[in-house]
Every structure is written in structure tokens, then in C-alpha cells.
Amino acid sequence: MFRKILVALDHTTADESLLPQVTELARLCGAGLLLVHVADGWATQWQNELNLTDSEEVHRDTRYLLNRVDELTAQGIATEHCLARGNPAQEILQIAEEHQCDLIAMTSHGHRFIADVWLGSTIDKVRHQSNIPLLLVRAKDVSKKIS
After folding, report:
1. % of the chain with per-residue pLDDT over 90
2. Which residues on neighbouring strands pair with residue 8, listed in sequence order?
3. How far is the first Cα of the chain from the last one, in angstroms, to the nearest whole number?
4. What's the confidence (pLDDT) of residue 117?
5. Per DSSP, what are the bridge partners of residue 82?
């Protein structure tokens, strides 16, 4: 059924809603996971143009991904990671295609009305531009960054 599942993590407590669902699906299908987080802070977005070193955001996000990879690998699930920089929707779509993923898993945070109208949601952009099926899991809590 699925061979490789891209799991879009936002490095908040919302990930705790998504990971158990995707982990069970990976077990059932014998699929591998590709954990993706897109760092989109100011310093990260302008890193190359301004010749900046990695920001603390990038270091935290990398540690977070590596910890998650270790946890899932210990559970017997083949897991890779990718830390991208820039526009989350564009990066998720590009990475999914490059890595030949056959499912994209993301959390839904609900509507924030003004922010959704002004910025558009990442899910909305991914679902309109992807030929890859999406698995959306409603996040229970998105209030806190995970350290």
C-alpha cells in the first residue's frame, strides 16, 4: 500500500497527535517514514543571502528531528529526516516528490480565520498542488513548542 510516508512536523505539541497515527500506519503497511520540518524563521529564510551561520532555531529543529528518528527507529520503523528551509508548503511538496513519497501526513490546526485568509494555510496549499494522497490528523493541542 504505502512504502514511504512524509510526516510534516511543526515542532509543537500538535506532533503528538500525528505521530502515533502515522507510526501505526507505517507498521501496518511496512512503510518507512520521512520526518520533515520546515524552518521558516527570519534568519533561516535569509541564511544564504546574508551568509549567516545556522540559527538557534535550526539547531533546535535538528535536535528535535534526530530525537524523533531515534525514538521511531528504536520501535523498528525505518525513519529518515529532512530539515528544510523556506516556504513550508513548497518545501513539503518538493521533498515528497524528490523522495518518492506516496503519502503526506500532516496535522490540521483548525481555522484561525484572519491568518488563514491573509496567509493561507499550509494544508490548503499542499492539498491543491499535490498529486500524492494526504492524511490529515486533527491536532489536539498546538499551543506549545516542544524543546
Report:
1. 57
2. 36
3. 34
4. 46
5. 36
